[in-house]
Amino acid sequence: MKLKHIFILIFMFLAFVSAQAQVTIGTDESPDPGMLLQLKTILNITDDSPNAKQGLLLSRVTLNSLTISSGSNMATTINGTSASDDWDKDKHVGLVVYHIKGSTSIETGIYVWNRKTVDGNDVYQWLPVLQTPPL
C-alpha cells in the first residue's frame, strides 16, 4: 500500500512539473508561442481574422493623481485605497487600469503605471495609453 502512495506522489509531481504556465482563456487550445495569456473564443484561427466575439474589461478605478506625492506607496494614486495599503511602486510597473472620470481633472481612459529614468532619477507615473474623446 505504501508503494502505491509513492507512485501516486511521483505521478502527481511529474504531472505538475510538466504543466505549462501559458494559458488560453475561452478555448482549450494552447496559446500561441510567446504569449503568457491569450483570450479567444473562436477556434482554429491561423490568419488575421478575429479570434473572439468579446473583449477584455479592465479594472475601473478613479485615479487621484498621476504621480506619487511622496514615499513609495503607489496605492495613494487610486481613490478608495487606505494609508495601510502598501503597493510597491516597482512591483506594479506595467499595471494597466481604466480610469473613470472622478472629481479629478485626469482624462478618462486607459493608463499604465510606468517607471523611467530622467537625469539618473527614477520617475514613476501613470501614463495614458488611449484617451477617450469627450462626448
| Percent in strands | 15-25%
Low-pLDDT stretches are none
Number of helices: 1
Order of helices and strands: HEEEEEE
Main sheet: which strands, in order across?
3-4-5-6
Q: Give helix % range.
A: 10-25%
**Tell me, what's the shape?**
extended
Termini separation comes to: 71 Å
Question: How is the biggest beta sheet arranged?
Answer: 4 strands, mixed
Verbal overview:
This protein has 135 residues and is of the alpha/beta class. 12% of the residues lie in helices and 24% in strands. The strands form two sheets. A four-stranded mixed sheet has the order 3-4-5-6, with no helix packed on it. It has two domains: 1-55, no CATH class; 60-131, no CATH class. The protein has one helix and six strands.
Task: List key phrases describing it.
single chain; 135 residues; alpha/beta; 2 domains; 4-stranded mixed sheet; two-stranded parallel ribbon; 1 helix; extended
